[in-house]
Write a structure and sequence with these properties.
heterodimer; A: alpha/beta; Amidase signature (AS) enzymes; eleven-stranded mixed sheet; 16 helices; 11 strands; globular; B: mainly alpha; two-stranded antiparallel sheet; 3 helices; about 30% helix; about 5% strand; transferase activity (chain A); AS_sf (chain A)
Chain lengths: ~475, ~100
């Protein structure tokens, strides 16, 4: 367990800064040392901005000395999944095709975190263009699970989850298209929040599947997830899918027990069926028992089309990805190669620049969108997606939130599933439905597993009701 | 169903090696077999869900933001213009 480390929460950092018992520069040095000490083994970072972080930390200390008001995120040590742009730093999304690309602008979430005065330590390793469930698809290096370095950390935001679990950063931002925040968070024993579609701007996130992708925080506690969520959520006109007038409460990180206890909890039986390990089911049942004993109303519910979520996902996602990744044509973003016939350039740069999983999904997406197959695959998948989404709406007439496991198994061994794509895709069967429906969902570590591999339970909520799932989570961790 | 990896990799402008062609053909046939499950769902009266939101026409002013860092990221810049290889040929109607 030498790779695990408990670290300061956001409120511990801001309280110490306010009292003057902590300097941002000390904290930054501590975190940079931690990265230097263990990241060669873990592989969570593709890029560490040591000088930039130290210079900014010094500047922040001076600002605080001269009276800067310390906010909830001030001085936090932060990393971003490499698909999220931070001006001036390389941004590869884990792909060789972007190996020379340096971001020339900030993602909206990066801008918002800058306003909150966080210290950026660098960019996290990830599955290439967020395609993967184990981080084995990074074109650069593996990420190891800090709980057991023979195991995968989950993916695709595996570098971000490993960085948080091992105490290298206070929190990280990841992106979640079919579980890429929640699944690695569950496997690394940290908290991961997939936000409601349209709540957090995607501007500056390299798009994989635009109707599914959402940015969200990976943190050590639900309370911290709420604080980060509050800072990054909200409308921008730079993202056409960003909702105006969201109206999230300023107090979203403060637990109101009385109000929380009125939440009706649903337990969908389809999430406890075949393919889910007994250990996971038993473990998540202890969480449900906890809420029952606390007096919450709990009801078994049914989402019968859950089994269709994976096949729908493996049509909609590659279709959108094949379109989004057309921009990586080898003519822009860093380097180009030869100046011969343009078609030759495309074919070669894309053939050499993309890894196997990306090529596989682009070919599949091109097929399901092609003339003659569009209706049979893509259109049908969009209709079944509507069915899945309507089932959630119906069940949410009856209950406020749903509790399920996050993953079917605990973290598996490196190499165990990399030869079989379909088996790998099964890792996301419990997380994909929330993306298809666009609803918020959080993964929270089940307590009492200190010497075992972590297990996460998932709470899903109604659209734009992050408050419900966050307060239920805070109730569990209080 | 006639899935031919060569055809779709070519449409997507991706060179594949022989080994990749064989492997992806097999992987994707297996996956397409799995997604055939969807044929069991009755969707005759269902409207497709075409995106993640029901927002319409979210427009903004189109004001370009470009600076030195942007220009240095583009592989070929000449006199302030971004330079790309020739894509149209007067001897051909379209690119093949």
């Amino acid at each position: 367990m030498k790779y695990l480390k408990k670290q300061k929460s956001l409120s511990e950092i801001s309280d110490s800064l306010k009292r003057g018992t902590l300097k941002v520069s000390e904290l930054t040095k501590e975190h940079l040392n931690r990265i230097e000490e263990i990241d060669e083994q873990i592989g969570a970072f593709l890029n560490v901005d040591k000088n930039g972080a130290l210079a900014y930390a010094d500047q922040l200390d001076k600002e605080i000395e001269s009276g800067l008001e310390v906010g909830p995120l001030t001085g936090a040590q932060v990393s971003l999944k490499d698909a999220i742009l931070l001006r001036g730093l390389p941004s590869t999304a884990g792909s060789k095709i972007l190996r020379d690309y340096v971001a020339s602008y900030d993602a909206t979430v990066s801008e918002r975190l800058k306003e909150q005065k966080v210290v950026f330590l660098g960019k996290n390793n990830m599955d290439e263009f967020a395609m993967g469930s184990s981080n084995e698809n990074s074109a650069y290096k593996l990420v190891k699970n800090p709980h057991d370095i023979e195991r995968i950390p989950g993916g695709s935001s595996g570098g971000s989850a490993a960085a948080v679990a091992s105490g290298m950063v206070t929190f990280a931002l990841g992106s979640d298209t079919g579980g890429s925040i929640r699944q690695p968070a569950a496997m690394c024993g940290v908290v991961g929040l997939k936000t409601t579609y349209g709540s957090v701007p995607r501007y500056g996130l390299m798009a994989m599947a635009s109707s599914l992708d959402q940015i969200g925080p990976i943190t050590t506690s639900v309370k911290d997830a709420a604080l980060v969520f509050r800072a990054i959520a909200g409308h921008t006109d730079k993202d056409g899918t960003s909702y105006p007038n969201l109206g999230y409460s300023e107090d979203i990180s403060i637990l109101n027990e009385e109000k929380t206890k009125k939440l009706k909890i649903g337990v969908p039986k389809e999430y406890f069926g075949e393919g889910i390990s007994d250990e996971i089911k038993e473990s998540v049942n202890t969480v449900i028992d906890f809420y029952r004993k606390e007096g919450f109303e709990i009801k078994e519910v049914s989402l019968p089309s859950t089994k269709y979520a994976l096949p729908v996902y493996y049509i909609v996602m590659p279709a959108e990805a094949s379109t989004n990744l057309a921009r990586y044509d080898g003519l822009r973003y860093g380097t180009r190669g030869g100046e011969e016939d343009v078609l030759v350039t495309y074919m070669r740069n894309r053939g050499e620049g993309f890894g196997p999983e990306v090529k596989r999904r682009i070919a599949l997406g091109t097929f399901v969108l092609s003339a003659g197959y569009y209706d049979a695959y893509y259109l049908r998948a969009q209709k079944v997606r509507a069915v899945i989404s309507q089932e959630f709406e119906k069940v949410f007439e009856d209950v406020d939130v749903l509790i399920t496991p996050t993953t079917p198994t605990t973290a598996f061994k490196i190499g165990e599933k990399s030869g079989n794509p379909l088996e790998m895709y099964m890792s996301d069967i419990l997380t994909i439905p929330a993306n298809l429906a666009g609803i918020p969902a959080i993964s929270i570590p089940v307590k009492g597993r200190e010497d075992k591999l972590p297990i996460g339970f998932q709470i899903m909520g109604k659209h734009f009701r992050e408050e419900d799932i966050l307060s239920l989570g805070m109730y569990y961790e209080r | 169903m006639e899935f031919d990896i060569k055809k779709y990799a070519n449409l997507a402008r991706i060179n594949l090696t022989k080994e990749e062609e064989e492997r992806f053909q097999q992987d994707l046939e297996e996956l397409l077999g799995h997604v055939d499950e969807l044929k069991k769902v009755n969707v005759s009266s269902v409207e497709p869900m075409t995106g993640g939101t029901n927002l319409k026409n979210a427009l903004k002013d189109d004001s370009p933001e470009r600076d030195e860092l942007f220009n240095t990221q583009f592989p070929s810049v000449q006199n302030g213009y971004l330079k790309v290889p020739k894509i149209l040929d007067k001897d051909k109607d379209e690119i093949s």
